[in-house]
Amino acid sequence: MDKTSREYEVCLCCHTTRGEVEDIIRETGVDNLKDLCAAAKIGTKCGGCREDLQMILDDVLGK
Ligand code: FES
Fold first, then answer.
1. How far is the CA of 49 from the centre of ligand 1 (A)?
2. What average pLDDT does the structure give for the chain?
3. Which of 22, 34, 39, 43 has the highest count of CB atoms within 10 angstroms of its CB?
4. DSSP string covering the chain, please?
5. At residue 16, what are phi and psi to the nearest 5 degrees?
6. 42 lines ligand 1 (CB under 6 A)
7. Does the Cβ of 45 fall within 6 Å of ligand 1?
8. Cα dist from 40 to 21, 63, whole Å
9. Ligand 1 centre and the CA of 13: distance in Å?
10. Is 10 in the pocket of ligand 1 (CB under 6 A)?
11. What is the pLDDT of residues 16-29, one digit of tens each?
């Protein structure tokens, strides 16, 4: 699956899609990975999704 698709399941442990993560970033205004993980309750199990979460964060924030 294309990582830029909103349907992309970014956190396999929590079954969270990219679209959900994008919405959480916009709704909560988080601007760093630690706060995003806490706000979305993701990235806290295996940690394998953190690189992708950072990418999504950068995309949404326009970095
Ligand atoms: S894939 Fe997100 S914590 Fe494991």
1. 5
2. 97
3. 43
4. --TTSTT-EEETTTTEEHHHHHHHHHHH---SHHHHHHHHT-S-SS-TTHHHHHHHHHHHHT-
5. -105, 130
6. yes
7. yes
8. 7, 20
9. 4
10. no
11. 999 999 999 999 99
